[in-house]
Predict the 3D structure of the following.
Amino acid sequence: MPFDRLQPYNDLPLLPPSAELETKAVLKQAIAANRVLANLRGLAAQIPNQGVLINSIVLQEARLSSEIENIVTTNDELYRADADADGKTDPHTKEVLRYRQALNHGFRELRTRPLSTNLFIDIVRIIKEVDFGVRRVPGTALKNAQGEVIYTPPVSEAVIRDKLSNLEQFIHARDELDPLVKMAVMHYQFEAIHPFEDGNGRTGRILNLLYLVEQGLLDIPVLFLSRYIIAHKAAYYEGLRGVTEQQDWETWVLFMLRAVESTAQQTFDQVTRIRALMEQVREQVQQQAPGIYSKDLIEVIFRHPYTKIQFLVDANIAKRQTASSYLQTLAGLGFLRPSKQGREMYYINDALFAELVK
């Protein structure tokens, strides 16, 4: 039966695809992507405190992934809101922060359970802050900018759950497919099933990162796939449609492999620059302010571009008054910039901020 974009795609083929996935071009690109990803994993493992990666770099993936869904916030507002615990910020920024919360939840859960439909539901509930599950009612359709329906996902909770069960089996099957090729197939299938009323795109992009962790290709979920998707948005959606309408798996898989290679290299370069910056500041603080220097202090001011006195207190570096003195000293030496916003005093690491938003 030919594909009809106006009809629910209940005939979405089960996995694995019948088409050849590991063509010569795909295998060549997979080798390149795996090599760069391995380099990133090795570099990330050398960071003494990976909080700088999880707390700050991951926020950029959260921001960009949300931007794909037209949920936009500024870097300044995002990092300032993240430094606060009062939740006083705009709805878009809150939703971006929930993306990272959902990613971190999935990352923690992988220690005790595998990727599964129930975990998918956990993730989308955190992102949307709504207690919903698999779609039960029809009416969902994907439209382009002109309002035209370009895809109608499967309907009926039973059909959707069957296809999700098949996706789980594919994810965990002991086959010889390259894990990155498998990730590309998994991502298409999840987006095609479109199991939730909202939040499918962000949930699917989180699943990509969790899958890489589950497969041991990354130790922490730090990769900017959304940056590549934004830069190549037309090709991303054309690739998805190509599989749906023509079973063109090769073009789609190659797109995703290039996305991994490109973003892994960009993240590698960024982490390298941040490590070099941390080492430079560490040496300078040790020389210019030996009385306050500690490895823990440097790690705290690099864990987040917006530092507060409470951060030093929470890290057991100093009591409140002494912590304030430490931050003022660092500001006086030019390593931090004090900024009073409302009743809160922040000490901004402008050099770190500049690296994070490149």
